[in-house]
Design a protein that fits this description.
This protein is α+β, with helices and mostly antiparallel strands and 401 residues long. It has three domains: 16-92, no CATH class; 146-167 and 313-391, Lipocalin (Beta Barrel), CATH 2.40.128; 171-307. It is 29% helix and 27% strand. A hairpin with a 4-residue loop joins β8 (261-266) and β9. The longest helix is centred in the first third of the chain and has 32 residues, at 78-109.
Length: 401
């Protein structure tokens, strides 16, 4: 058998090492790298703009029809579609979050603050500064116990808000002034200076002077005045005219004098009393200023008691609030004027009006004023009239009395 010589097997060419294969693989690798880079670029960009949590993105993606449509229409590029959907979701989340934040801000802004009561304005203080306490009594004029429930049948807007205060300027007497008055009254004794503006004289009558106070007592039968015929008292008009003429003749009235009125007539003893008050203010409760003149049946002045200032300048003051004044009146912090004959009064009282009255405040030896009071008036359930006087000035000490 012929022996064959050995030949090594011929090497077969590897297709994977073919130049074409290498080129194709390189191109494919570049394409894949480009796709990955493109995907990563958009994915990173989307993540850079979207700070929302995955839950927020999912909610936004559900709320964004365009994102869902884009994801469904591109199945071959699901990753890219996801990136687009994420970007759309970001926009939707941002747009959706902004109205919610605005709504929250609006709700906070429209919360109504707790209502606070505005402080009451400070009442006007007049030229005399803070005033001393008003001279007003306490309790009731009838003397009996008063236990009433008060009802307001009027508007508090009717209560005055301001009122004048009058300064009572005392009259200053010299020794010559006192001697001249004593001589005019027919007093024969010497005038004695007692100091501090006080003088006294006696003889055919008696005279005492202390600043704004003048007291005169005539001798029996009367030493001054114009006698009238008959033993009966003159009519009231004549009595007032006689008293006024005597006061003016003796120069005992400095401030303006009011009309005057007969306050009592004693026909049996032939004595009448006439009282004068200043022309203003109205409804003066105090005895200062006033001039009381006693006249006999003959028409002669038998006695005079005069407390009259030299002048009464005025200044406007603000009053306390109407609600505070009514609170005082309805809770018993005022003077009650009622004609109950000393008996106890209970039940209801209806107040229908408010006005002003005046009383003194301060010391006549230093500074004295006429100050306003607010008067609440009405009637008790049985028809009995009632008035309640309350201290009214804002810049004033608490009442005394």
């Amino acid at each position: 058998m012929a022996q064959r010589s050995y030949r090594p097997p011929r090497n077969r060419r590897n297709n994977n090492n073919s130049p074409y294969a290498i080129v194709a693989a390189s191109i494919l690798l570049v394409v894949v790298a480009a796709i990955v880079a493109w995907i990563l670029f958009f994915y990173d960009g989307a993540n850079g703009d979207n700070s929302a949590t995955p839950t927020s993105s999912a909610i936004a993606a559900l709320a964004s029809p365009s994102a869902g449509a884009s994801a469904q229409s591109s199945p071959q590029a699901s990753v890219a579609a996801s990136a687009v959907a994420s970007a759309s979701a970001t926009g939707s989340a941002t747009a959706g979050a902004t109205p919610q934040a605005s709504a929250s801000a609006q709700a906070t802004a429209t919360v109504q603050p707790t209502a606070t009561t505005a402080p009451e304005p400070t009442p006007l203080v007049g030229d005399y500064g803070s005033l001393p306490a008003a001279d007003i009594p306490s309790g009731s004029s009838g003397g009996g116990q008063v236990q009433l429930t008060y009802h307001l049948n009027m508007s508090l807007q009717q209560v005055p808000q301001q009122a004048p205060v009058y300064q009572l300027q005392p009259r200053v007497w010299s020794a010559d002034d006192a001697a001249s008055l004593a001589q005019s009254l027919g007093i024969t004794g010497d005038v004695q200076d007692q100091g501090n503006g006080s003088f006294r004289a006696s003889g055919n009558g008696e005279l005492y002077i202390s600043n704004s106070l003048v007291q005169y007592i005539a001798p029996a039968g009367g030493a001054s005045g114009t006698p009238t015929s008959g033993g009966e008292l003159p009519d009231n008009g004549t009595l007032v005219q006689t008293a006024r003429g005597w006061l003016l003749e003796q120069d005992l009235l400095g401030a303006s004098i009011g009309p005057g009125a007969v306050t009592s007539r004693d026909e049996a003893n032939g004595v009448a009393q006439v009282q004068f008050k200043p022309v203003e203010p109205d409804d003066l409760l105090s005895a200062i200023p006033s001039a009381n003149v006693t006249i006999g049946a003959s028409g002669a002045v038998t006695e005079a008691f005069v407390r009259w200032p030299a002048a009464m300048p005025r200044s406007t003051y603000g009053l306390r609030s109407a609600s505070a004044l009514w609170q005082d009146a309805s809770s018993g912090r005022g003077y009650i004027e009622i004609n109950n004959g000393g008996a106890a009064v209970s039940g209801d009282a209806t107040i229908t009006s408010a006005s002003l009255a005046y009383t003194t405040a301060g010391d006549p030896g230093t500074k004295q004023y006429l100050v306003p009071l607010v008067v609440f008036a009405g009637q008790v359930s049985d028809g009995t009239p009632i008035k309640i006087y309350v201290s009214a000035v804002g810049a004033q000490a608490a009442p005394r009395g």
